[in-house]
Amino acid sequence: MLLETYSKTIRIEAKTMIEMASRKLLPATLSYVHNVCDSIAVKKQIGMTSKSEEKIAAKLNELADKFYDSIERLKSQLKNACDITVIKDQAVYFHDCVLAEMDIMREIADEIEIEMPCEMWPIPNYTAMIYNV
To answer: Domain 2-116, CATH 3.20.20.150 — does that match?
Structure first.
C-alpha cells in the first residue's frame, strides 16, 4: 500500500512538473529569447554592438534546449513507469528514473530563472515567496 501511494504521489508531481514546464516556463523562456534576439537585430541595424544580448540569448537558448529535452525524457520515463505492473518495481523506477529526471529538470529551471527578468518569469521566485508571504 505504501509503495502504491509513493508511486501515485511521484506520478502526480511529475505530471504537474511537465505541465508547468511545458505551458509556463519553457514558453516564457522562449519568449524572452525572442525579445532579446529582436533587440540584437535592432541594435545591428543602427550599428550598435550587442555582445551582452548575444551572450544572454545564446545561454538561454542552450538552457531552453536542455529544458525541452528534459521535459521529453520525463514524459517518456513517466509513461514507462506507468507501464510497470509490479508495484515494487514501479516504485523503484519512479525513484531511480522519474525523480532523477525531475531533479535534472529542476536544476535547469533554476539556471533559467537566474537569467530571466523577474517580470518575465511566470511563477513566483524564491525571493517573492520568502519576503512576500
So the answer is: no
